[in-house]
Design a protein that fits this description.
- The structure is a single chain.
- By secondary structure, this protein is α+β, with helices and mostly antiparallel strands.
- About 45% of the residues lie in helices and about 15% in strands.
- It has helices at about 10-20, 25-35, 45-55, 55-60, 65-70, 75-100, 105-115, 155-165, 185-200, and strands at about 125-130, 135-145, 170-175, 205-210, 215.
- The chain has a 5-stranded mixed beta sheet with strand order 2-1-3-4-5, with helices on both faces.
- Strand 4 and strand 5 form a beta hairpin.
- The protein is elongated, with a radius of gyration of 20 Å.
- The termini are far apart.
Length: about 220
């Protein structure tokens, strides 16, 4: 049955307008994004199929075009639309972070890092550069690939901090494996970066490990 044939109080779009987006399931939100289903399936059914196929929203968001297009009803247009939606969300959060002291918006920091790093299939290391009032100057991906002390160069982070005239930084990298707990190499790298940046009077406020929707904070664990 098409969604247009459903009772009005059960239709995803009408429910969102009346109750807010938070009242909808993942499949219903995807249905609004899709707008239409395919033969024999409503948009909600197609949304459920997407979630089942990719295992989670995170799995869907990290899917490349070939995998995304393997589901009947999806293709380049929907893939481009989804990527544009994700990028708009990132930019919106980045604007929020730049509007005031970053430490006053811990939610926005976490949400931004989840969107910036949580959906990547490769390891990526990023730095948030802050001024003396803890306002965000820039967010920059600096390294990608297997992250170790031999692939993340402290001198490059120091150079970038000096170029941005940063007073402090927040470090972040992702674990595509899905486990946010830092490895011994992560801990060693954090200390190496902290020591290198201290030489130019730049503080490391935190180091986040992002694994999908999970985050591990070095500062919260007393490791900074």
């Amino acid at each position: 049955m098409a969604i247009t044939d459903w009772p009005e109080d059960q239709r995803p779009r009408e429910r969102l307008i009346k109750h807010g987006a938070q009242a909808l399931s993942d499949a219903e939100l995807l249905a609004i994004f899709l707008r239409v289903g395919v033969r024999g399936k409503s948009a909600v059914d197609l949304g459920r199929e997407m979630l089942a196929h990719f295992g989670s929203l995170n799995g869907l968001f990290t899917a490349g075009l070939p995998a995304f297009s393997s589901i009947n009803g999806l293709g380049e247009a929907k893939y481009a639309q989804l990527q544009a939606t994700l990028e708009l969300a990132r930019r919106s959060l980045l604007e929020e972070l730049k509007s005031g002291a970053i430490l006053e918006s811990p939610r926005a920091v976490r949400e931004y890092l989840q969107l910036f790093l949580g959906h990547r299939s490769h390891e990526s290391f990023a730095v948030l550069f802050l001024d003396v009032k803890n306002r965000l100057i820039a967010a920059q991906e600096m390294f990608r690939g297997t992250l170790t002390q031999t692939s993340v160069y402290p001198r490059e982070v120091v150079k970038a901090a000096l170029a941005h005239n940063a007073a402090s930084v927040i470090l972040a990298h992702n674990h595509p494996s899905g486990a946010p707990e830092p490895s011994a190499a992560d801990r060693s790298l954090t200390q190496a970066l902290k020591q290198a940046l201290a030489l130019v009077d730049v503080r490391v406020l935190d180091h986040f490990v992002v694994a999908g929707t999970q985050l591990y904070s070095f500062a919260e664990k007393g490791l900074i």
